[in-house]
Amino acid sequence: MSAADIANSNPSGPNPDGEPLLRIRDLKVGFSAQNRVLPAVRGLSVELSKGEVLGIVGESGSGKSLGMLASLGLQARNAVVSGSVVFKGQELIGRPRREMRSLRGSEISMIFQDPLSSLNPVMTVGDQIREALLLHNKNMSKAKATERVLELLQLVAIPQPDRRINQYPHEFSGGMRQRVMIAMAVANNPELLVADEPTTALDVTVQAQIMTMLRDLKEKMGLALILITHDLGVVAGHADRVAVIYAGQVVEEAEVRELFANPRHPYTRGLIASIPKLTASKEKLYSIPGAPPMLGALPEGCAFHPRCSFAQDVCRKVSPPTVELGRHRASCHFAESLPSWDDTSRTAQSKERSHG
Ligand code: SF4
């Protein structure tokens, strides 16, 4: 298969039967401790169409990575998982680990934050990509695999692939190592790529290059992409839709432009206000006050109420309903009545919290 074939192999668009590529429904993940199950993911529901980019955003500890790992059968052994994860019409929850292993690396791939710990330091990058290929293509010859490795290195814009193929991970920069991981992840032409904090360890310029490259690959290969990140700014220019997660639940979901133009959940507003502004270099960087709740110590009512400047009595007692406004949904008692949002409200929120 040539680079051009690779590039055209998964044309994007809705599945013929109109079903999403991936549908996660009411996913729950908990951990057994002291005769009870501590909930970490509490009924996560998202879907993704072929060729779409979904950003999953939340602070560390929100359950975003855990939920996606459990969806792909990568949860810890003591995790209790329930709900439904349907990929291409097939239920994944409850499938044997062996089958899930075969699915991962072929139809579904993942890349993680730290490429150095995912790469083997004593194998050349060429051997590692070749291994990923041969694992899922038993009949592929070594020569053919090497040819494909060179194509893949080219596809992820590694200069001088003929020379680089024989080098070890420590001879690559952080950004180049992430490119190698991406080459390995797309080696078997997956339909879904899950990228968990793919740029967090990289500097801003390299971050932008990697995000642009992922977006280009998605266009060329028709990949569906899930971007998991704590930084709403990372998904701003790259996702089609965004699901914001707090305390193991989606609290808001919308198309990316709609979410930034009209955030209906105070937590989302806080995340937007936390994105550094290029024009405000002297302003103190905003961060949402407090911290996400601990497992097993969820507050009553809305889980966000101890940190929310809009909280009322009802928020402390009653879980908010999910309000659906077209393709925009938000779980807040006041989703339809919060003050309107524009750039001044963002600045006001930053100031109020910075000085408060
Ligand atoms: Fe804030 Fe209440 Fe909405 Fe929760 S339900 S986000 S506490 S306003």
Q: Can you walk me through this structure?
A:
- There is one protein chain.
- The protein has about 350 residues and is α/β, with parallel strands linked by helices.
- It has a domain at about 265-355.
- Helices cover about 35% and strands about 20% of the residues.
- The protein is built from 14 helices and twelve strands.
- The chain has helices at about 5, 65-70, 95-105, 115-120, 125-135, 140-155, 160-165, 175-185, 205-220, 230-235, 255-260, 265-275, 315, 345-355, and strands at about 20-35, 35-50, 55, 80-85, 90, 110, 190-195, 225-230, 240-245, 250-255, 320-325, 330.
- The strands form two sheets. An eight-stranded mixed sheet has the order 6-7-8-3-9-10-12-11, with helices on both faces. Strands 2-1-4-5 form a four-stranded antiparallel sheet.
- α5 (about 125-135) packs across α6 (about 140-155).
- The longest helix has 18 residues, at about 205-220.
- It is globular and about 70 Å long.
- Bound molecules: iron/sulfur cluster.
What layout of secondary structure does this protein have?
Layout: H1 3-7, E1 22-33, E2 36-48, E3 53-57, H2 64-71, E4 79-87, E5 90-91, H3 97-103, E6 108-111, H4 115-118, H5 125-136, H6 142-155, H7 161-164, H8 174-186, E7 192-196, H9 204-221, E8 224-229, H10 232-236, E9 241-246, E10 249-255, H11 256-261, H12 266-273, H13 313-317, E11 322-325, E12 328-331, H14 343-355
Helix pairs in contact: 5-6, 5-8, 6-8, 8-9, 12-14
Bound molecules: iron/sulfur cluster.
Radius of gyration over all CA atoms, rounded: 21 Å
Small-molecule binders: iron/sulfur cluster
Note the overall shape. globular
- Segments where pLDDT lies below 50 for 5+ residues? 1-14
Class per helix and strand makeup: alpha/beta
Terminal Cα span: 60 Å
Strand % is 15-25%
